[in-house]
Amino acid sequence: MALTEQPVPTEVTTSNDITLTEKAAAELASLISENGKDGSLLRVWVQGGGCSGLTYGMALDENEPEEGDTIYADRGVKIVVDDLSLRYMKGAVVDYVDDVLGGGFKIENPNAVKGCGCGSSFSAGDEEIEGLDTRAGGGCGSCGCK
Known about the structure:
Strand content: 35-45%
Order of helices and strands: EEHEEEEHEEEE
Helix content: 10-25%
Distance between the termini: 51 Å
Mean pLDDT: 79
CATH class: Mainly Beta
């Protein structure tokens, strides 16, 4: 059986599956500029772990998109997400919140059916799929919240 190489995405998708608030876009633009990472994408993902079974991840990515990635653009920022994570994040909004404890990015996810008190872990109710290990979930503290 011969393996065929799948094309890596280069086109930006025009749908609004993942969006940014104005404040998140401004903070990301500032981070990209301050760190000299022009051309970077915001990569968001979901992985098994945390109190509720799934955790979010987010990073500035200077690498080329990979097979299975989808690229979005919102408010001047390119966002890249893999197919598995998109299943759990479709419709999500990335926000930046600033309070007395400091600032940070927060994901408002319409697919979350329950979440941890710290907001870094969630459950979508169907985590039993191939490629996603959610066994680490199980009580506050496993995702680092106190």
